[in-house]
From TrEMBL:
<dbReference type="Pfam" id="PF13456">
    <property type="entry name" value="RVT_3"/>
</dbReference>
<dbReference type="InterPro" id="IPR002156">
    <property type="entry name" value="RNaseH_domain"/>
</dbReference>
<dbReference type="GO" id="GO:0003676">
    <property type="term" value="F:nucleic acid binding"/>
</dbReference>
<dbReference type="GO" id="GO:0004523">
    <property type="term" value="F:RNA-DNA hybrid ribonuclease activity"/>
</dbReference>
<feature type="domain" description="RNase H type-1">
    <location>
        <begin position="13"/>
        <end position="66"/>
    </location>
</feature>
<protein>
    <recommendedName>
        <fullName>RNase H type-1 domain-containing protein</fullName>
    </recommendedName>
</protein>
Length: 68
């Protein structure tokens, strides 16, 4: 099975999203998230996720805006 670059990016974003949701639902509020995809980290930290066409990035943006 061959994955395209955009599929790998989406999978990493989805993994991050699911991890954050799980942490939030379990009541964790002081967390440190690591990711080996510099582009994904930059998009999230700079705030570009808000305007993304990827649902996962928009959802991550909403999650990190919560009161952690």
């Amino acid at each position: 099975m061959v994955l395209e670059k955009d599929e790998v990016f989406r999978i990493k974003a989805r993994s991050m999203l699911e991890g954050l949701r799980l942490l939030w639902d379990k009541g964790y509020r002081q967390v440190e998230l690591e990711c080996d995809n510099a582009i994904l980290v930059k998009i999230i930290l700079v705030g570009e996720a808000f305007d993304s066409h990827l649902m996962e990035l928009r959802a991550i943006h909403k999650l990190i805006q919560r009161n952690w």
